[in-house]
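Subject: sequence -> structure tokens, single chain

Hey, anyone have a minute? Need the predicted structure for the following. Not urgent.
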Amino acid sequence: MSTLTKVLIVLMTISAIFLCGIVVTYVANAENYRLKYADLNNRERATREKERNVTEQLNKTIEQADQQKKVLSGEIALLRQEVDSLKADLAEALRQKDDALRRVNNWAAIVMDFSKTTDKQRQLLEDTHAELKTMQAELIKEQREHKETTAALVEKMSIVAQLEEKTKRLLEEKTELQSRAEQFLQQFGKAVATAVPVTPVKEKAQVAAVTTDIALKGLVSEVDLKNSLAQISIGSADGVKAGMRFHVVRGDEFICDILIFDVEAETAVGVLELMEATQLQPRAGDNISTNL
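Reply:
Had a minute. Here:
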């Protein structure tokens, strides 16, 4: 065997070993790439599924908020119509009051004229005094009705303001959900439409109502947890007024508070508060009182 042949054999052997190493390395790397591809593919599918769920939840929330907004807008429109009607009634009451005052003044002049006449005219003067007293009684009645109308107007305006505040809070919740969705999608290189900025929610006004000196007690008659509202079994006939705060208890356990905003003769309606602190929900039959 010649030297050239030996050299060729050695070179072929080295080449074969080198090719075997390359093949083994390729096979190992190909298996790793396949596993990595499968893992990345699974992660991408999971991410797409999460994105789809978040998008569906966002759309449902937006739809619910829009429906609630429409309902509240309708209620606000009805309340505004009622306020306009009350304003018209107030204007009519003031006009009647002015007419009554003019009639009183006219009758006073007539009384002075008839005081100088004969006995027959004095009899007429007495009749005029009687009519004057009747008109004064009517005037007092109209003044009382005017005060009641004014109080009802103020109460309805307070309800309108609370409904507008609730609408603003719903818009804020909608914007917050859109912001969360945008932050979640940005982690995966996605983007959503920019939320329309709304007015920041103002801190809820504290109603200054002193109820510690009035020991009122009753029961919860109805509960609307969806809208955080509750109806109680006592009303204005028992001394309940808008702005009063009632404490809901069950046995010796504190449940939540009810802030009254609408009062009828025998019932009243209020907003549920402090439910997050106790993690308990009120129900019909729970006891209420102004003092714990």
